[in-house]
Prior knowledge:
The complex is a heterodimer of chains A (360) and B (213).
Chain A: H1 3-15, H2 17-26, E1 28-30, H3 39-59, H4 69-78, H5 83-110, H6 119-141, H7 146-159, H8 166-174, H9 181-213, H10 219-227, E2 234-236, H11 237-262, H12 285-296, E3 300-301, E4 304-305, H13 306-322, H14 324-327, H15 332-358
Antiparallel strand pairs in A: 1-2, 3-4
Helix pairs in contact in A: 1-2, 3-5, 3-11, 4-5, 5-6, 5-11, 6-7, 6-9, 7-8, 12-15
Chain B: H1 2-13, H2 30-36, H3 43-53, H4 69-103, E1 115-120, E2 128-134, E3 137-143, E4 149-153, E5 164-166, E6 171-174, E7 179-181, E8 187-189, E9 198-204, E10 207-211
Antiparallel strand pairs in B: 1-10, 2-3, 3-4, 4-9, 5-6, 6-7, 7-8, 9-10
Helix pairs in contact in B: 2-4
Amino acid sequence: MSIAGRVQNWLDERFGWAELIAPLKEKTVPHHRRSYWYFLGGMTLFLFLIQVMTGILLLLYYRPSANEAFESVQYISTQVRYGWLVRSIHSWSANLMIFTAFAHMFSVLFLRAYRKPRELTWVSGAVLLFLAFGFGFSGYLLPWNTLAFFATKVGTEVAGQVPVIGPWIMIFLRGGPEVTGATLTRFFGFHVAVLPGLTTVLLGLHLALVQRFGISVPPAVEKQWNDAPHERREMKFFPNFLLRELMAWYTALAVLGVLAALFPWGLGTKADPFASAPAGIKPEWYFLFAFQTLKLIPAKVLWIDGEVLGVLAFGAAGLVWLLLPFVEPRRPAGYRAVIALGVFAVAFIAAMTAYGYLSK
Amino acid sequence: MLCCEVARRFRLAGVLRETPAMGGSIPDRGFAAARNQSRIASPQAWADTRSNMHTGETVPPNISPGGNSAARSSSRRTLLKTFLGGGIAASLASFLYPVLRYLVPPVETNLGVDSVVAATVHELKPNSAKIFRFGNRPALLIRTAEGEYQAMSATCTHLSCTVQYRKDTQQVWCACHNGVYDLNGRNLSGPPPRPLEKYQVHIQGDEIQVIKT
């Protein structure tokens, strides 16, 4: 018997290995002309795993203090062999991960995969996206360069606009009234301990729910299959779908490799808390639409501060988005309204992002 | 009639173009089959796997003309399996190489120190000592009770703790594992396997210079 077979037997005798993996062998994925959307979640997971691995590698040389952070990242980029590549992959993969997470979310929205019984899968996924934003925001500060310093100053200031609890949130995030080395220490802790812990738990829940309910079939296809059951198509997850997913991962890897190698992530200049903000300062692209919207709101709308209004509006929109499966009216007009909302959201984000890039 | 029925079901299952020996192209499902090869020995089993691709559909075995399709698909599977395994192995190797190189820290620039001013002549009283920095490592300068200077590495030869001079015993002592050296750095008792590296001491004017020989 082969070594693998003997190991399998050993495991099987002790805790029923065959029984444990039986559901995986039976697992199927619906096969229809929109099946390619199913690859996006797996791609996001793959990029997340790359983040974990390159993040651990960066931890070997990174030093989280205001005096050493910039120099240690400089050291990684210039002295450590392949350090520039590891850092570049970490930065690019973060951006691609946010992008695939967005794409995954909108595909779930437009294929209405969030509908009963998968409401909690949607909620856990939406929370995972918010956590990804948290990763992006906290990780951005860690090289302690000028752009990161001011992005953090602005970002935490925005959090401070929330009525009543805002100032407290700002102090909590900054570790004091100003962005200092204390903020860096906190953000480092959030980035490498708090957020990974929360993400692991939620990711486990998200994947367990996907496993529990199986993959959703779009309503149109479902109706077609119910009318003509012999047209129902499914593909075994292991190995058929997994091998296809693997090809999707290779595609993501190719894009990532090209971006990381040809456009290595820059470092900029070391943050100086007493220098003026440089011209043309902008947040990461996935925050740009919110940043641009806040810029467009007048200083006062009626008696409310513009900033406060913007922050409240985004907070409300985020909450509606998170609870979408629960607030969706249960009738065809309601479904159409949600699709329209999705189209509006995509158009709004795309337009505001483009506007943010083009404007001064 | 049977033929038509088989063809119809194949079209429904979307596998007609993918049947080995019917088309010229390599079926994309071949990857899956290749992965399963170790567990599938007979044509019947091969057909069973195909029937499992899409549940609810059964694909009869041996429908293709030509007779030895099982042998042909078997060698095709071996080839695909080799490609798949080789590709994955090559990918892993290409990930692993930079990672291994990354893990090895860059060599610190050696300060290349072979002489240093360890103290001034007024600094040490007889029967006392000081630790000073010699390149990247600590070293020990002792002024004996007789007033002579001795210099040696302060890194214990046992497990690299930093040793100290003891006034009471007039010996060099390592607190970690009770290693004892004499004032020439020779290991006297305890675990140290070798003497401490000895340095030369030169007094130039006011300065005590220590030189690595």
